Amino acid sequence: MAQKKFVVEIEKAKEAANGRPSMGPVYRNLLAKDGFRPLTPGIDSCWDIFRVSVEKFPKNRMLGQREIVNGKAFNAHGLYCVPLYDSLGAGAVEYIICHAEISLTFVEETKIPEVLKTFPNTIKHLKTLVSFGKVTDEQKKGKNEHFDLPIKKKTDTCTIMYTSGTTGDPKGVVISNKSILSIISAVNHSLESMDQGYSEEDVFLSYLPLAHIFDRVIEELFISIGSSIGFWRGDVKLLIEDIRELKPTILCAVPRVLDRIYSGLTETCAGSFAARPDELAMIGTVGPPLPSLDVCLESVPEMGYDALSSTPRGEICIRGNVLFSGYYKREDLTKEVMIDGWFHTGDIGEWQPDGSMKIIDRKKNIFKLSQGEYVSVENLEGIYSLVSGIDSIWVYGNSFESFLVAVVNPNQQFLECWAEENAVAGDFDTLCENSKAKAYILQELTKIGKEKKLKGFEFIKAVHLDPVPFDMERDLLTPTYKKKRAQFLKYYQFHANRIC
């Protein structure tokens, strides 16, 4: 049987030249081999999505009792919004208000103290603070009023989303109306090809914050087709109960929610690849590119990845209308990642024979050991996370040492069962300090390292067991659960030095 192929080559590979690495062939989804699907005429902004859907499905349930607060009003008036995670501290909130020069803020009553903590530094920009508690009778009178709305264009900025920031200050990712409209078009195109289209009968449960581009775009998608959207109550413990009550037909999640692993890019407007549910061979991959963008791999010689080899591997580069417009007020950062029209993701990918992409590494998180060997830390953490006895792991090394160490969150039930079987006394905290427990976890890490044929310098030589899961409270994780590596080193410096 002939190999299925879901991509088509549109440009030839390029050898290394002028100081730039070689680049593999440029591929596009087979659905778009003759060009990308044009956007719907008359739909130029997210407000148009909402307006047209209301006109088309006037009797349908849409947003239920917990409406998307103020977002549609911003869209209607051609303003852009800057959504913030409610877990951000006052320092990050202050930085974003000043950097984006925010003048009008909508904030829940319980979060007002966090905004007030930014005073007086933000007063220069912040002119109005609106608390959205109960809607007053006076405010309800505006429901039937009609306003002259400005004309919106596809090129207008729709939103500026600030990345969680694993290092340094958050970056403002500028996303245009065209970017969001393009991703919606591409998703619809892909679903139609699989007879998996959605309709106004579907119900979507939203539980990711609107500061997360994935949820923002998915909600726009379901609004556009007249589907209903229900909002969870904000309590993880009640999520199953919310699902039972709403009975959604669609549930979208970042991988972290499903298996404690998160990956994704704000800059590609929620999606660049999508695995097909009808193709089992795509399990373990992110699927082929959506039919709205072009993709190629760029060689990374220092990591041994060659985009021109028989098994093409390299940094994933993307171009197309789904991309962001640039980092707000940071042209320098934009130029770092946008080179000759290609967005360099920092992800290392490997093309599969069917045209799907497998993420195998991360370019940005490498360091050199004292003997000169390069270590790809995220790749190793992914491998060591396969050990059933651990929940999370942070791998550390530096150019002054020849080996790696790790801080591990052991699985409590797993460790306590091991302790009972091996007559090791103590509660969970005590077990994490026990030398036999540390030796056992290290043994399990070594075992998986051998199974995966890791090189000698990639093996963990010592561990510190922390009973407290890595969390945002200690500033170790971003709101999207990515590790803040600089903060990890700062927090665990003593333990890292002790076991090195």
UniProtKB/TrEMBL annotation:
Presence of the UniProt keyword Phosphoprotein in the record: no
GO BP term, pick one: phenylpropanoid metabolic process
Gene Ontology MF annotations: long-chain fatty acid-CoA ligase activity
Key words of the record: Phenylpropanoid metabolism
Pathway the protein acts in: Phytoalexin biosynthesis; 3,4',5-trihydroxystilbene biosynthesis; 3,4',5-trihydroxystilbene from trans-4-coumarate: step 1/2
Domain of life from the UniProt record: Eukaryota
Domain AMP-dependent synthetase/ligase: 76-261, 264-328
InterPro entries: AMP-binding_CS (IPR020845), AMP-dep_synth/lig_dom (IPR000873), ANL_N_sf (IPR042099)
GO cellular component, one term: endoplasmic reticulum
UniProt-listed Gene3D superfamilies: N-terminal domain of ligase-like
Protein name in UniProt: AMP-dependent synthetase/ligase domain-containing protein
